[in-house]
Amino acid sequence: MSASAKSSAAIKYTGLRLAVFAGCFVLVAVLVQFGILPKGLGDSNFVWVVLLALVLSAPLSFVLLRKQRDAMSEQIVDGVDRAKDRLHANRTREDGIA
User: Where would you find the membrane-spanning parts of this chain (predicted)?
Assistant: First the structure.
């Protein structure tokens, strides 16, 4: 697989992960604004909304983005395996020369 395909899988997963977080952030902000969810203490409302959005988006991303995460991790494993093979080939070549 090419380097551009590898980076595009990572970029796609990251973009989708950010989109899930943004959606959760908007949802939590609306729920807090209408009083369905409690507001933070004092001026901590923004931090409260961000933390609630993170807590909500993590399990959603885990379930909803499984295919993208698996594709990205497969590409990472392939890249690590290729690097190990190159390292092994270089060591074997050095051993044969010396």
Answer: 16-34, 46-65
Tokens of 84: 């190990």
Mean pLDDT of the chain: 87
How many helices (H) and strands (E) in the chain? 3, 0
Mean pLDDT of 2-14: 74
Residues 44-60: tens digit of each pLDDT: 789 999 999 999 999 99
- The answer to whether 28 and 37 have CB atoms below 8 angstroms apart is yes
The residue among 31, 26, 28, 17 whose CA lies nearest residue 60 is 17
Instruction: Kindly tell me the burial class for residue 9, based on how many C-beta atoms sit within 10 Å of its own C-beta (0-12, 13-18, 19 or more).
Output: buried
Q: Could you tell me the residue ranges of all domains in the chain?
A: 3-97
Please state the rounded mean pLDDT for residues 28-52: 88
